[in-house]
């Protein structure tokens, strides 16, 4: 690859653009993953809030029934929770244990989010670097009177 | 990698060890007449004789028990001693997204290994538990897949077709395996068979250029069978060792894309069909691999993003559930971040801190 003082040829610019596109696609996948983790985390928080609410004095929860409609409901057995623990297995847990389980899951998701975010940051830094080089290449080409491809 | 599972296994291991120790201590008063030993190691429950057909046959178990207590001071673990600890291990595995059949196999193996186990004086409870867990995990992880050995034993070029769903890192995996093979001294050509996704040909082209690997490519939208056929012909003409065939991501229930894959298989006649999915998908990856194997067949599996997977469920379950070995784990962003899957190494890492 050319150093900063040597004008880039069109082929090199194209290669850099391909790199940028490839990094962009990878970044997009990581952003999707980050979003999925965030959705999972928010869902778990909402579930904890509901589970704790069930044990409150009133014991009424807001139950979403689809189509944006919700009803106030009283849970028959607020102490027993059916919980999907993974591998498509559902087990019965006490309210307290279910909350503990969800808190652990939230911690796991936060750790994963941190890792994905770090990878994304690295990718973005690399993309910025490539962008700078492409811009410099264009400017050099303009200065030299070429038409970049 | 799999840090969460490692931590949970550590806790389950301590619980198993604790159960055995507690049962041993409970039975200790019965062994008061025994000579002093460095640590408690007596019997917990009456030991079932293997074939208690007659009263006489049952007697040796008592004799054996006494002998165990007084002479050898061995530990004999009963099923009841382990009940709670095994349930906890089961929950741990399921919570880590280890598939139910694999979980059952691990629990069954640990139980079989520990129940009725005799422990000699000096042998630590933890040794016993780690040995049982190691054996159980190795059993479900299978043999792995030695690609170098496979290539060495097969006619060149060895043709490897990569399939899987969209966005799991198939193209990057093709590049990483290309780099790995090159490092191992093999010559490689890549066939850019993903002519469907915009930018896929450029993506694999960038990888190939960086790695100095020859790539065979056609225009976007071209017939992938034709591209991969050309790649195989190129490899034959230039005595290349391995053809790595990238393909478009697809779901097993998309009939048109699956029939395209069938055509690719007919035309390029791959030696190996490798299914690629991401470890972070957990049990979904196992289910998808199972469906893919049923529809188009798979000879081995590669799991990407294993470095971001703290649970490890997919890696533990996939070989046992679909009956196909795990070949590589993707563990990062650079070309070197791929590791050949060696069950023994993974088990050692999972039981880290154990003997």
Structural account:
The complex is a heterodimer of chains A (about 150) and B (about 350). Chain A has helices at about 10-55, 95-145, and strands at about 60-65, 70-75, 80-85, 90-95. With about 150 residues, chain A is of the alpha+beta class. Chain A has a single domain, classed as Helix Hairpins (Orthogonal Bundle), CATH 1.10.287.370. In chain A, the strands form two sheets. Chain A has a two-stranded antiparallel sheet with strand order 1-2. Chain B has 13 helices and ten strands. Chain B has an eight-stranded mixed sheet with strand order 5-4-6-3-7-8-9-10, with helices on both faces. In chain B, strands 1-2 form a two-stranded antiparallel sheet. In chain B, helix 11 (about 285-295) links the parallel strand 7 (about 270-280) and strand 8 (about 300-305). The radius of gyration of chain B is 26 Å and the shape is elongated. The interface of A and B includes residues 18, 88, 116, 119 and 123 of A.
Keywords:
heterodimer, A: 149 residues, alpha+beta, Helix Hairpins, two-stranded antiparallel sheet, two-stranded antiparallel ribbon, 2 helices, 63% helix, elongated, B: 355 residues, alpha/beta, Four Helix Bundle (Hemerythrin (Met), subunit A), Rossmann fold, 2 domains, 8-stranded mixed β-sheet, 13 helices, 52% helix
What's the layout of helices and strands?
The complex is a heterodimer of chains A (149) and B (355).
Chain A: H1 10-54, E1 60-66, E2 69-74, E3 80-86, E4 89-94, H2 95-143
Antiparallel strand pairs in A: 1-2, 3-4
Chain B: H1 3-27, H2 55-72, E1 75-76, H3 79-95, H4 100-114, E2 118-119, H5 125-141, H6 147-153, E3 158-164, H7 170-183, E4 188-193, H8 200-211, E5 214-216, H9 224-237, E6 242-247, H10 255-268, E7 272-278, H11 283-295, E8 300-304, H12 313-322, E9 326-330, E10 338-340, H13 343-350
Parallel strand pairs in B: 3-6, 3-7, 4-5, 4-6, 7-8, 8-9
Antiparallel strand pairs in B: 1-2, 9-10
Helix pairs in contact in B: 1-3, 1-5, 3-4, 4-5, 5-12, 5-13, 7-8, 9-10, 11-12
């Amino acid at each position: 690859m050319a150093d900063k003082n040597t004008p880039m040829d069109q082929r090199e610019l194209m290669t850099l653009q391909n790199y940028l596109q490839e990094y962009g696609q990878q970044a997009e996948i990581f952003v999707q993953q980050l979003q999925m983790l965030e959705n999972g985390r928010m869902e778990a928080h909402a579930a904890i809030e509901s589970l704790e609410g069930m044990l409150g004095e009133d014991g009424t929860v807001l139950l979403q029934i689809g189509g944006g409609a919700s009803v106030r409901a009283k849970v028959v057995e607020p102490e027993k929770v059916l919980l999907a623990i993974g591998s498509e297995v559902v087990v019965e847990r006490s309210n307290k244990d279910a909350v503990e389980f969800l808190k652990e899951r939230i911690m796991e998701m936060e750790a994963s989010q941190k890792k994905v975010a770090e990878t994304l940051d690295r990718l973005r830094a690399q993309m910025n670097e490539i962008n700078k080089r492409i811009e410099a290449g264009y400017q050099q080409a303009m200065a030299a009177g070429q038409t970049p491809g | 990698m799999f840090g969460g599972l490692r931590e949970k296994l550590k806790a389950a291991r301590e619980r198993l060890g604790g159960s055995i120790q507690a049962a041993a201590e409970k039975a200790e008063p019965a062994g008061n007449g025994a000579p002093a030993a460095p640590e408690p190691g007596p019997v917990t429950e009456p030991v079932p004789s293997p074939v208690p057909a007659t009263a006489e046959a049952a007697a040796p178990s008592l004799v054996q028990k006494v002998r165990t207590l007084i002479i050898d001071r061995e530990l004999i673990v009963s099923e009841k001693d382990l009940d709670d600890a095994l349930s906890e291990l089961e929950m741990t595995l399921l919570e880590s997204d280890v598939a139910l059949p694999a979980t059952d196999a691990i629990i069954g193996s640990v139980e079989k290994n520990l129940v009725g186990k005799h422990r000699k004086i000096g042998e630590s409870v933890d040794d016993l538990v780690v040995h049982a867990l190691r054996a159980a995990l190795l059993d479900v992880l299978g043999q792995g897949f030695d690609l170098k050995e496979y290539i060495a034993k097969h006619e060149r070029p060895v043709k490897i077709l990569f399939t899987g769903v969209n966005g799991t890192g198939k193209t990057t995996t093709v590049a990483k395996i290309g780099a790995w093979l090159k490092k191992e001294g093999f010559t490689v050509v890549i066939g850019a068979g993903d002519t469907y996704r915009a930018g896929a040909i450029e993506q694999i082209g960038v990888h190939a250029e960086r790695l100095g690997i020859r790539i065979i490519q056609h225009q976007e939208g071209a017939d992938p069978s034709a591209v991969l056929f050309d790649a195989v012909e190129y490899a034959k003409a230039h005595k290349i060792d391995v053809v790595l065939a990238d393909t478009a991501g697809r779901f097993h229930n998309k009939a048109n894309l699956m029939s395209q894959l069938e055509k690719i298989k007919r035309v390029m006649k791959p030696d190996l069909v490798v299914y690629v999915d991401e470890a972070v998908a957990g049990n979904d990856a196992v289910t998808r691999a199972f469906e893919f194997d049923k529809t188009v067949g798979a000879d081995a599996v590669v799991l990407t993003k294993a470095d971001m997977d703290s649970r490890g469920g997919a890696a533990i379950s996939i070989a046992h559930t679909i009956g196909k070995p795990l070949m590589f784990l993707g563990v990062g962003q650079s070309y070197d971040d791929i590791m050949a899957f060696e069950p023994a190494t993974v088990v050692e890492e999972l039981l880290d801190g154990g003997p």
